[in-house]
Specification:
Strand order of the largest sheet: 2-1-3-4-5
CATH class of the largest domain: Alpha Beta
Number of domains: 2
Helix content: 40-55%
Shape: globular
Number of strands: 5
CATH superfamily of the largest domain: SGNH hydrolase
Largest sheet: 5 strands, parallel
Structural class: alpha/beta
Number of helices: 8
CATH architecture of the largest domain: 3-Layer(aba) Sandwich
Strand content: 5-15%
CATH topology of the largest domain: Rossmann fold
Length: 291
């Protein structure tokens, strides 16, 4: 083959290879996944109530910009629509919680890719009623016996089973109906109390020794209701029973995820601190395979 012909063939080949490479690069760029459309629903554990800084766009909800939805969004590059709100109940998914605060499900649509939520603890006043009742009983008893259990017995568990559990299922079905293609993650609540009474904890959580496991069992029942509701509606349950062990409100600063009732550092007691919100985000991302 003459040299000039060979040069033309080589030049054409190099040009073709370059064009192909540019085409592949362009195709790869266009194939990059779009950011997730992420909607965060739920109560104060989702909102990070008490964790600074507070979201100034809605002070009624006491929502933090360092809550676990924001941590997840930052780590994944997701487009976050955060409608979490302190004191929310499952009913507030479909009704206005406060004047000017839209039902949380209004934020969810057919294009939503990811939904996370922590909900159920405020239904029937489970958390506040149990903690208030057991804390009061603990102070009056000087930390002895199980006065809260003796007085209230199975009443909190009965409400969880007969009322909270069905409303959780209804709420998750409503999420699925609005976002049929989204991944939905229902988070359990990290442990508030240790497994057994610790005398040194009484000053932080004034519970009688016998009521520490009683209150923990109530929380375990609530988490199990969330788990069952998630499984029965096609959602993913994010279990914190192992991950949050040893990080309850009785632990030292820097170890605990939940602030105690007394002498804590958060504006809102018995709620996750900034460390807890970060750890909730990290465990959720691990379970979902995100980040």
């Amino acid at each position: 083959m003459p040299k000039h012909t060979l040069r033309r063939v080589m030049t054409a080949t190099i040009a073709a290879v370059g064009t192909l490479a540019l085409g592949l690069t362009d195709a790869t760029a266009h194939a990059a996944p779009a950011p997730l459309d992420y909607v965060a629903l739920g109560d104060s554990y989702s909102a990070g109530s008490g964790v600074l800084p507070v979201d100034p766009t809605n002070l009624l909800c006491l929502r933090s910009t360092a809550n676990y939805p924001h941590v997840i969004a930052k780590a994944t590059g997701a487009r976050l629509k955060d409608v979490t709100c302190g004191a929310a109940r499952t009913a507030d998914f479909t009704q206005a919680q406060y004047p000017g605060v839209a039902p949380q499900l209004d934020a969810v649509g057919a294009g939503t890719d990811l939904v996370t939520l922590t909900i159920g603890g405020n239904d029937n006043g489970t958390f506040i009623n149990a903690i208030t009742a057991c804390g009061t009983a603990g102070v009056l008893s000087g930390g002895k016996g199980s006065p809260c259990k003796d007085k209230h017995g199975t009443s909190f568990d009965d409400e969880i089973e007969t009322s909270t559990y069905p409303t959780l299922k209804a709420a998750l079905r409503a999420v699925r109906a609005k976002a049929p293609d989204a991944r939905v993650a229902a988070l359990g609540y990290p442990w508030i109390t240790p497994a057994a009474a610790d005398p040194s904890c009484f000053v932080k959580l004034p519970l009688a020794a016998g009521d520490v496991p009683y209150l923990r069992a109530i929380q375990a029942h609530l988490n199990d209701a969330v788990r069952r509701a998630a499984e029965e509606t096609g959602a993913t349950y994010v279990d914190f029973s192992a991950a949050s062990e040893g990080h309850d409100a009785c632990q030292a600063t820097g170890t605990r995820w939940i602030e105690p009732l007394l002498f804590g550092s958060n504006l809102v007691p018995v709620h996750p601190n900034a460390l807890g919100e970060r750890r909730m985000a990290e465990h959720t991302m691990s379970v979902l395979g995100l980040g």
